Amino acid sequence: MSALERAGRSTWFRLGDRDLALCLLRTELMNAGARLTEAHATVVRAMGVDVAVLPMADEPVRTKVTAQGRTLGFQEFMIVAGAEGPIERVEYSGAAEARPTPEVLAAIAGADAILIGPSNPVASIGPILAVPGLPEALREARAPVVAVSPFVGGEVLKGPTRLFCDHAGIPPGAAGVVEAYGDLLDGVVADEPVNGVRSLVADTLMHTPEARRKVATITLEFAASLSE
């Protein structure tokens, strides 16, 4: 990054050598005609990951955030603008033209369980659900769809989830998560009970690797119980 700075290039998005190398590899493959799915699979293999990690679509979808009268890309909003709200608008640019890939649709159709991680419902999961055909695929899936609430004790422990949820009118807590995902859900895992959907009340604080494994295990077990 220091070499780019000396060359007068913008370096606000700080990347390490490995990240830069993988981005260059993916860009090189796509410039040569590879689909994003194919290029990303090469990156995943280069990282030594032996499971499929699929982008939702091959078409570009970019999250744009308007706050304080300025519209910025998501990363620029987070890093350059310091995620300073309030947020006035969130746009998933390109989502309407994108379509889920055959690989994604096959993975959903063949899954034993579909888990929505404790991520930002607006900035992280929102762009995925904005792609036409993906919500429908989740509704039609034979596997149960279970979300893990990102709220612990009604609060977000890190990241801008609360800021984005406030903009979208999503109440903090498990009830807000259920409201955000609506009829996509068959169940929710949270540290508080919630009405309207089957729920598992558990300690969802993932502050250690052991705690993260525990939440993953009980969530998979809960999803399996919904199929019985």
3D architecture notes:
- By secondary structure, the chain is of the alpha/beta class.
- The chain has 2 domains: 1-52, no CATH class; 99-226, CofD-like domains (Rossmann fold, 3-Layer(aba) Sandwich), CATH 3.40.50.
- The protein is built from 10 helices and 7 strands.
- The chain has helices at 2-6, 17-31, 36-46, 74-79, 102-110, 126-129, 134-140, 161-168, 174-181, 209-226, and strands at residues 62-67, 70-73, 87-93, 114-116, 145-148, 187-190, 198-201.
- The strands form 2 sheets. It has a 4-stranded parallel sheet, sandwiched between helices. Strands 2-1-3 form a 3-stranded antiparallel sheet.
- Strand 1 (62-67) and strand 2 (70-73) form a beta hairpin.
- Helix 2 runs antiparallel to helix 3.
- The longest helix is centred in the last third of the chain and has 18 residues, at 209-226.
- It is globular.
- The model has no long low-confidence stretch (mean pLDDT 92).
Write the topology of this structure.
Blueprint: H1 2-6, H2 17-31, H3 36-46, E1 62-67, E2 70-73, H4 74-79, E3 87-93, H5 102-110, E4 114-116, H6 126-129, H7 134-140, E5 145-148, H8 161-168, H9 174-181, E6 187-190, E7 198-201, H10 209-226
Parallel strand pairs: 4-5, 5-6, 6-7
Antiparallel strand pairs: 1-2, 1-3
Highlighted features:
single chain, 228 residues, alpha/beta, Rossmann fold, four-stranded parallel β-sheet, three-stranded antiparallel β-sheet, 40% helix
